[in-house]
Amino acid sequence: MGAFKQWVALQDDFEAFYFIPDLHAITVDYDPAKLRERTYIAAAQMLAAGVDPERSALFVQSQVPEHAQLAWVLNGITGFGEASRMTQFKDKSSKGGQDKASVGLFTYPILMAADILIYQADKVPVGEDQRQHVELARNLAQRFNHRFGETFTVPEAHIVKATAKIYDLQEPTAKMSGSNQTHAGVIDLTDTPKQVAKKVRSAVTDSGTDIRFDPAEKPGISNLLTIYSAVTGRTVDDIVAEYEGQQYGHLKVALGDLLADFVGEFGQRTRELLDDRAEIDRILAAGAARAREVATPTLELVYERSGFVAPGGVS
Fold it and tell me: Alpha-carbon distance 136 to 157, whole Å?
C-alpha cells in the first residue's frame, strides 16, 4: 500500500518506470498458469491504484530482455561472498534449506540491480527492507564505472518513513509478505472485504490495554497503527489520541472497516480492468517499448565498455 501511494505520487515529478517482476518470480517453485494470471492481476492493480500509462512506463520484466542481459554482465563483477551476505536470500533459503534454494534465488539481487541500473535511475522507491538491495546496485554501479569508465548513474533509495515496513498480522515482528506460508496474517488486495475485516479482527495484539506506538514493547498494536496511518494518511500520533482510553477491539474494528472499504473499491476497479485483457496487453506492450528506448542504449554502452564485439563488427 505504501509503495502504491508512492508510485502514484512520484509520477508528478519524475519519469517513472514500473514493472511486474516475473523473472524474479521463477526463482522459487511456481505454477506457470498462476504466474501468467498473477502478472495480469498485478498490472490491473497498478492501474487501479493510479499508475498512469500516459505518464509512466508500465511493463512486464520479461518483455524487456535488457534486464536479464545486464544482470549477466553484473554477475561477472559481483563477489560470491558479497551475494552470500544478502539478508533476504539467507532468510528465504533458511526456510527450505540452502540445498533446495535455486541459483536464481541466490543471484536475484543482482538481477534487481540490473532492473535499476538499466534505466539510469536516480531514485528507487522501495521499502526499508529493500535498502540493502539498493546498496548492492550502488556498489555495482560504482565498481563498473571505476573499472570500465563512467557508465551508470549511481541510484539512491527513496523511502517514505511512515510506511517503511508493514508486518504480518499474526506475527507482528515479521514482514507482511505474499511469500509467507500462511496467509492468515497477510492482507491481499484480492481479498474480499469480509476476509480483510476478519483478518484484522484476528490480528495478534500485545499485553496490556493501552493503545500506543511502541514497536519494541507493543509490536502488534504498533503495526495496526502503522496500517491505519497508511490507509487514512493521518499521523500515528493523531490516531493514538483518538483511541486514548479505548480497548484494542475498538481499534481493530475501525481499521477492519477502513481496510474492507478500501479493498472493496480497489477490487472492483481491478476486476473491471481485468475484464479487458487486450487493453492490458496493449498498455504493457507500449510500456515495454518505452522502457526499451532507455534500456537498449544503456545495454549497448555496457557491452561496448565490456569489450563485446558489436553486431556487424566495431562501429
Answer: 11
